[in-house]
Fold this protein.
Amino acid sequence: MGFDLLPILLSTLIAGTPLVYAGLGELITERAGVLNMGVEGTMVTGAVVAFAVALTTGNLWLGVLAAMAAGALLSLLFAVLAISFRANQLAVGLAMTIFGTGLGSYLGRPYVGMALVQDATQAGGGLAQLPVIGPLFSAVHPLIWLSWILFAAVWYFLARSRAGLALRAVGEAPTSAHAIGYPVVRIRYWATLFGGAMSGIAGAYMSTVYASLWTEGLIAGRGWIAVALVVFATWRPERCIAGAYLFGGATMAQLFAQSAGIGLPSELMSALPYLATIVVLVLISRDASLMRLSVPASLGKPFNPQG
Amino acid sequence: MPLPETDPGRQFRLELRGISKSYPAVRANDRIDLTVAPGEIHAVVGENGAGKSTLMKIIYGMVRPDAGDVLWNGRETQISSPAEAQRLGIGMVFQHFALFDTLTVAENIALALPEKLPLKAVAARIVEVASRYGLPVDPGRHIYTMSVGERQRVEIIRSLLQKPGLLIMDEPTSVLTPQAVDTLFVTLRELAADGCSILYISHKLDEIRALCERATILRGGKVTGVCDPRRESSNAMARMMIGADIQAISSARTVSAGSERLAIHNLSLPASDPFGTTLSDISLSIRGGEVLGIAGVSGNGQQELLAALSGETMFADPQVITIDGKPAANLDPRQRRAIGLSSVPEDRLGRGAIPSLPLSENALLTNGGPDSVRGGFIRLDKVKAFAERCIAEFGVRGGTADSPAGSLSGGNLQKFIVGREILQAPGVLVVAQPTWGVDIGAAIAIRQAILDLRAKGAAVLVISEELDELFEIADRIAVIASGRLSPSVPRGRFDRDAIGLAMSGQFAAASNRSEASRVHSV
């Protein structure tokens, strides 16, 4: 039985992409000092909204946009409670996950068991007709290569742009940022809304591209993995995307292994990607001083501009 | 030179009229008037809690006054945010720096500039200003690798690049060596000569007399005097500042012949934290009836040394620290207390006390002997009585034995914590920054209590950034710099300049200097 490398790589990309979106979104949020534990719930809601809109309108992109809006809306609620009213960020985030998951189940009830029929080769539009790189666009879903653009943008934003510097400054020392004249609360709102919108896309990808259906338990803890990923990636986008694909690879390896008939219970096999990702990331982030230098110092702490 | 207020032709850079600001418990500013002329170095003097910080926050737009007017260059202005203040040309150098530890110097400064320059251009401007005012700094370095003095330099450069018309300096010398203070004054005088006004906030009267042309003195939120500090005596200014004469502390200067009570033998400790300091090869010995002072700029290993002594950091080799001859380095804080070592950490909330617990329970935390606990049950009446003794004997105001520790002001909590340790009459007391943030009267009381403890035969180690304090109470002074401890110098050979040199790590130069001065004085 010969393994072909290309399908493995391709399926790794397919399985890792939702974590790229959710992870990079949460990374931006946390870099501003806001810990939003509601990623899982936001992904569930995003998945249902995207599925419903794509099914009704027949347009995948309207579904993705709707999921972004839904994700941003949920994180706006989080931001009002956790940033403006300075409620405990952990508690509000956990509440948002419970709320988002419940909301998703409720909204998604009519859609259980329906299938979204779409032609993946058409999703990329005219790009597939391009010479040389055209086949790439037909083989890889646009949401996958858009996630690479997102990665590049996030990396550039944090490492090179003035706005990114301000965002990092706010996460590092909000009091100082306020003292030299930066609108800490507004920057934290935008970072949280961005994170919510990205979680929305991640959910949309799960229901419209990865599974092409909606069922409860579709997100299956990927939101939590995304939160863990950001921490173990020491808040760096390049490590975050590597971690996402590690998870993707492990997911696929596990599926291949199951189909090859390895005699382990399938429940255990399904848990492996989560375990493998966490173990590898923990090993990478063992260096305590690296963690100390990387963690946004104000992470999870409310900021009061009135002192 | 005539005082600016007598010169009607001149327009003030900044004028405050009747500024008032109340907080729920306290009237922080009460109808304060203040004027600053262009190019003037103006001191705002007062004790902790006199309202200096509130007033500066009002000028810098961080706090809004309840009443009163702010005039900037003669025009009435509302300063509603720090960004607004910067647009007007008001810069501020904070006491606890407003810098970002994990960013570089250039990034920190770029953040504060109104125009969006590339980092290279920012770096070039930093180097330009740095050489103009003699403030050497490397734009590419990360803040967390820098000493406190270097960080202050970054803050000053950051303010200067905004071309301020008024620069507010909040207690700028509390973190500097005496030599660095001189350098800072040269820079500030040059700035003033260029037309920049400077508001200099301090409680150190000698510095104000050396630097400032005018001083506004605050007490209890009110202006109690405006004077030319160069013509006033320190005593006259102190009277305006505290409302009474300063009483001297009395110390029976007996030569101690006690036996060694606390000793450290070749203690080395790698930093556990990238922001921390590595301690290397520290040795010291204190006899009963003796106070050893450790001077140094903060962040040079004081916290690590205190943690090693209190037992927060433990060592495998018990012989590294001995208390009354008993090996103690492998004991935890409770075990060390049991054999007679008490400690007062620098960090009052979190290490010294638990903010949400009442004072009585905070007292119990380090005083858990048979007096206060019997058969596993707390004797509430005894615990409360002990807390009330601390409150009464150390003049703790603003709280009773039932008030949570976090509700007290820093200075009052400090009095309580120091009192809690001293009243247990320890054989060895280790105390960091004993009078930090404490008003002058209470500071004298605390120093007196330390000397009384010494007279009873205890060994006391005082870690302090206030050289004057050490000169007052220490029998010997050693200097800590970059995690190394200099040899100690006995009273009588104290030399401010030599200690200053040692504080910047130049132990050899310092001891040469102190040798030389001894030869001259012979």
